[in-house]
Amino acid sequence: MEVKLNADERIDQLYRDNIQIIQSPSVFSFSLDAVLLANFAEVKQSSRAQIVDLCAGNGAVGLFLSKKTNGHVTMVEIQSRLAEMAERSILLNDLKERYRVLNLPLADSLGTIKTDSVDSIVCNPPYFPNHPDSKKNPNQFLAIARHEITTSLNEILETSQKMLKMNGKLFMVHRPDRLPEIINDFTQNRLAPKRIQFVHSHEGDEANMVLIEAIKDGRPNGVRILPPIITYDGLEYSPTVKEMLYGSTK
Fold it and tell me: Which of 62, 99, 226, 242 is deepest in the core (most CB within 10 A)?
């Protein structure tokens, strides 16, 4: 389906799954962390599955899940411009029957999404706390996407545990330097970490991202640390990342 693009917009593609995303450098463009999260998430294939993408931005993570599930996906995004871009990307990929966008604050989304009704949640949240002295991007769209201005880690997790069914799963990408806080806040919100995978730019570099799976009301033991993902092999993407992006290691 053809959709109208604004002057500052373009269409990018996840070639492996033939998913098209409307992007704009003026407000927001998805990055590799969205692809990594969608690849990491293990969602149900059933058409009855209920999946939520919190802090959805322009909808990249939720859309990248479209070939992994036949279920229904709800995207929650507070910024109206990004939510509208996500809606047009849904039309662009002919997913209107299974996808919807809620242009709401996280807390208000609980008025639409029933408690204890969701099978899986994916979330690529703002990574940085909103300290008064934090240096923020002058572009308000990017500042909200990167800093906890309109939400916080704890609010995201509190909202997630209310939405999820018992044994429902949350999948999140975040920064390794906040891992102790993340684990603590997961535990406080009845979310038991089960899989953790670190992402490194190059072999030998410190991790710059961490992927986490947690289960609502899961047992507190049995955490698995998966083999790390290396993003680059020299100047090119590694075979692992090439496969995620293009469906090929070439």
Answer: 62
